[in-house]
Every structure is written in structure tokens, then in C-alpha cells.
Design goal:
Elements: E1 3-4, H1 20-33, E2 37-40, E3 43-44, H2 52-68, E4 74-77, E5 80-82, H3 88-93, E6 104-108, H4 122-131, E7 135-139, H5 149-158, E8 161-165, H6 166-170, H7 175-186, E9 190-194, H8 200-211
Parallel strand pairs: 1-2, 2-4, 3-5, 5-6, 6-7, 7-8, 8-9
Helix pairs in contact: 1-2, 1-8
Bound molecules: fe (ii) ion (FE2).
The site of fe (ii) ion has 5 residues, from loops.
Length: about 220
């Protein structure tokens, strides 16, 4: 099945879709490419303090808008949890984990400011999630320029699965992220791909990538 586990398509709750019509445009592009099920994963970070309660009404609003417009996509709800002290401990404490496909938890590291992680040790947090019977999914390791290969391998050996971005292969984040992704793929480390859809620029770049004959990977 053609699934996307990683998208910022809900309107106005993070740095993704800017209003409901923009959300609909992003989803309809994804449906045209062939995605059958899309999980919404708005950020939960120090900057975007989302909770299941802030996400649910917006999720239902988008579901309704798609239904009314006859856009046939199975929309699911989760979040992208960033390992930062402002939100991650509260996520665990208040049980805000919403598993994707009944098992994955999308757990990102800070991208540009590694110090935002504070005293959090990612490996320990991944192990906590594994002990709950869930599978941590680390998105776009190709974009963490500070993350060593050894540390990444320690995550994988603990049971973390890696999700790279279609956009990385398409050149959306520059040459370095593209080459990093290719290396990860060659090493057999990439288990899943996500669109990480944020806006219409992503639609252009990823759309071109699929139009060039690169397939959506099915799970
Ligand atoms: Fe994301």
C-alpha cells in the first residue's frame, strides 16, 4: 500500500499548511501521485506546543473538507515528536503518543540547533518507547549534520527504524542531504520514506521527482 507516515498538512498548527485550502491542495497533489493513506504528523516542539487536543479538531476539519471534495485518501492522525525538554517529557508523562500504523512513533532530533536537545539522551528515549512495545521512527537522519554515523548505528542496533525524505533524494534540502541519503540507502539503513510535506514548493520538487520515474515505495 502507498502510505505516507510524515506530513505537515494540517492547517495553521505548525510550519506546514497555511490554511484549509492549502491543506486540501497538498493532499490532492499527494493523492494524484498515488498515496492511499496519509498520516498527519504536526510538530510537537518548543515552538509548536501541540497536543492531541489541539491536533484533533484540525484533523477532523481536514477530513471533512476532503470528504466534501471527494478526495479519496485515508487520513490518519499522529505527530512528529521532537526530543526537546520543553515538550518530550510531557508527551511521555501525559501519554500523548499516537502510534502510526499501530506501532511507529516519529521522533525527530533538533535539525539546526543540536543544543536544543538539552540533557536528553536520544538513545535512552528510544529505548523507553521500545519498552512500550512501539517502534521509534527517526526521520531524515540525512539532515542532522552533527549526528555521527556511530551514534546513528547505536540507534539502529537498539531497534530504531530510519525514515528518509523523498525530498532529500529530490534535492529539496541541497546536495549534502541528497548524498547523505544515497549513502544511507547503499548501506541498507533506510526502512521507510516520507514526504515530510510542508508546502507547495515540496509539491513541485517531489512531484518532479516522481514524474521522472522514481516510484513511491509501498509497504
Ligand atoms: Fe517533519
Amino acid at each position: 500500500m502507498k502510505l505516507d507516515f510524515h506530513s505537515h498538512i494540517l492547517p495553521l498548527i505548525d510550519d506546514g499548511a497555511t490554511d484549509l485550502e492549502n491543506s486540501v491542495a497538498l493532499v490532492s497533489a499527494m493523492a494524484d501521485w498515488g498515496f492511499e493513506r496519509i498520516t498527519c504528523t504536526p510538530h510537537i516542539t518548543n515552538k509548536f506546543r501541540n497536543t492531541p487536543e489541539t491536533i484533533r479538531p484540525v484533523f477532523e476539519q481536514l477530513q471533512e473538507a476532503l470528504y466534501v471534495r471527494n478526495i479519496d485518501v485515508d487520513l490518519r492522525m499522529s505527530a512528529e515528536y521532537r526530543l526537546v525538554p520543553e515538550t518530550w517529557p510531557e508527551v511521555l508523562e501525559k501519554n500523548w503518543l499516537m502510534p502510526i500504523e499501530d506501532r511507529f512513533i516519529l521522533m525527530e532530533l533538533p535539525i539546526f540547533n543540536p543544543e536544543d536537545i538539552g540533557d536528553i539522551k536520544p538513545l535512552e528515549e528510544f529505548k523507553k518507547v521500545i519498552s512500550l512495545g512501539l517502534t521509534p521512527l527517526l526521520p531524515h537522519p540525512e539532515r542532522y549534520s552533527y549526528l555521527s554515523h556511530d551514534e546513528l548505528m547505536s540507534f539502529v542496533e537498539a531497534g530504531v527504524k530510519i525514515q528518509s525524505n523523498y525530498g532529500s533524494l529530490a534535492g529539496l534540502y541541497g546536495e549534502e542531504a541528497k548524498q547523505n541519503t544515497r549513502k544511507l540507502v547503499e548501506e541498507g539503513l533506510v526502512s521507510y520514506y516520507g514526504t515530510d510535506m510542508h508546502n507547495l514548493h515540496y509539491v513541485d520538487v517531489i512531484g518532479r521527482y516522481f514524474a521522472q520515474g522514481n516510484p513511491i515505495i509501498e509497504y
